[in-house]
Write a structure and sequence with these properties.
Layout lengths: L1 H8 L24 H18 L15 H21 L1 H19 L11
Helix pairs in contact: 2-3, 2-4, 3-4
Length: 118
């Protein structure tokens, strides 16, 4: 009896809050662009390498990087280490964020750089 009452109380539109419904529709999910993913990966792994984290010893494929992203990572790690020595950790983080965003934007300016995943 309770089940039939609950079923008959369900909105006809499946509960999505259509015309006159009280439940708002869920927002569309955000998809991460290749540029955003690249920037996130580079900033994460640069921080891990600079901190000497155990996972920093992984190879680039285990880090989830392509060969091109690995080149960006290596360049930024060199620059961030120099910045760490002269400007400290905040300056190194700022340089990492700025350079990762710039380099990844350049790499993915026209979409994906190659047809394959590597």
């Amino acid at each position: 009896m309770l089940l039939s009452a609950a079923c008959s109380a369900a909105p006809a539109d499946g509960g999505t809050g259509g015309a006159g419904g009280g439940t708002p529709a869920a927002p569309a999910p955000h998809s991460t662009s290749p540029q955003e993913l690249c920037t996130s990966l580079i900033t994460h792994w640069t921080a891990a390498i600079l901190a000497g984290a155990p996972e920093a010893g992984l190879d680039y494929q285990a880090m989830g990087l392509s060969g091109g992203q690995n080149e960006i990572l290596r360049d930024i790690v060199v620059a961030a280490r120099a910045e760490l020595r002269t400007g400290g950790p905040d300056a190194a983080r700022a340089l990492t964020a700025r350079e990762a965003e710039r380099r990844c934007a350049d790499r993915y300016r026209t979409g994906t750089p190659t047809g394959g995943p590597w």
